[in-house]
Amino acid sequence: MKTVLLRSAAAFVAALALLLTGSAGSLAASAAPAAPSAPADTVYGCPASGVRYLPYPDDAHKVVYCEAGYAYVTTCPADLIWNIRYEACDIPSDAHKYATSLATGTAHLVLAPLQVKGLNARLTWRDGRPLGGATLTFSTTTGTALCTARTDRNGWTSCDSAPGLNVPVDTLRAGYQVTYKGIVTLGASQARGAVSTTS
User: Is this model's pTM higher than 0.85 or not?
Assistant: First the structure.
């Protein structure tokens, strides 16, 4: 049986104690949170009230602890990862992996200087919930990197490539792909989007 023991100060979490109890014994460790984000969390999707744990999508060793709209990123000790299913630090082999999904829209090709604007995607997981704070990589369909961006609390993100691309126009017109590399507890995903020509 796995449990989580939590200690929090009034408006700021001083420490997060994570307790893992298993057949081989028990392991207790604490992790100090980073500085809080704005009360109206725009990155991870913390609710305005109450307490919730959200996955940190780019590092399985971390977890987002939400309290009253504030987001605190904490880290599991040693080689443990945050087990989303049990809401506890755990050994990687016990982790359940949740699938993720990407959806894309249409970006726009600018010919002079050559650039792709408005590359966009939305990342979701577990019953279609948005996955905020994830790094997405946008590239051509042949694998040339265009830009990277982090998703917001609704799972959306967008970015523009640098102007003056040294890529064949036909390659850019063929569309783009977006990739979320995933972690131990969140599966990788990839999708393709269209590119239209801007006059």
Answer: no
